[in-house]
Amino acid sequence: MPPPPFVQVEQVSMRYGGLEGTLALQAADLAVARGEFVAVVGPSGCGKSTLMRLVTGLWPATAGRVTVDGRPVSGPVAIAGMAFQNPTLLPWRSILDNVMLPLEVVEPHRRQLRRERARYEAEARELLAQVGLAGFEQKYPWQLSGGMQQRASLCRALIHRPALLMLDEPFGALDIFTREDLWAVLQEVWMARRPTVILVTHDLREAAYLADRVLVMSARPGRIIAEREVGFQRPRRLEDTYAPEFQALVHELRDHIAAAREEGPDAARREAADVR
Ligand SMILES: Nc1ncnc2c1ncn2[C@@H]1O[C@H](COP(=O)(O)OP(=O)(O)OP(=O)(O)O)[C@@H](O)[C@H]1O
Predict the structure, then answer these.
(1) Nearest atom, ligand 1, residue 42 CA
(2) pTM for the whole thing?
(3) Which keywords describe this protein according to UniProt (predicted)?
């Protein structure tokens, strides 16, 4: 029998702002295996970030069930690391202290931090070196470029060795060259540590480069309407993204999203028919 999914979303709906509010998700299902790298793509405003908030327990679902590692999600999930489009580093803390922040919050690290500070600090420095930020530990966020801040934010998401890494457009604000550099960094970190990853992105090349499987969402109210395995060998290289098979996959995903956008009016009708 196959192991149960590490992340499971079953028939989840989410309406913001009470009965008359926006229905962001409707009867959405999602299953992600332990250690899998999944990308979620879809039309703008279809509910991708909402799905992320429900899986990490930042919002409760209006209906349905979310489990992570076999446990129902009823509040913030401690085993999750998160990074968003905006690096959200604290300006008054050094890069090293920003990276170490989750250790001050998440148990059991919180309890162990005072006693084992040197070990944790060495881990943070190692992680920073892995993403190319050796030597910048004592700098402040405002002294770093946007790409460097995003690298640091990735380290902060990883420092407590989360089993689940939730990335919501982490490279969305970066120029294409920096973004491509960070794809390689993320792939390397994932291959070394194998967390389960859910990545929300608007960039279909990014999804195809990084993910084992790409999930396509419908227009709002969102649900998963298509999925595509990505079989390219790892480690994937930037040159691979120019191969015909890779480009064909990106086109296929684009067609799915175009169809999902067309479906918009139907989605609106579905919403009207279901007042959940
Ligand atoms: N806190 C909120 N209160 C009310 N409505 C919200 C809230 N957050 C999101 N929404 C609405 O829910 C819908 C889904 O939003 P969400 O941010 O999940 O979509 P998204 O797919 O991540 O969007 P984008 O592609 O633009 O990043 C949108 O119509 C949005 O306006």
Answers:
(1) 21
(2) 0.91
(3) ATP-binding, Nucleotide-binding, Transport
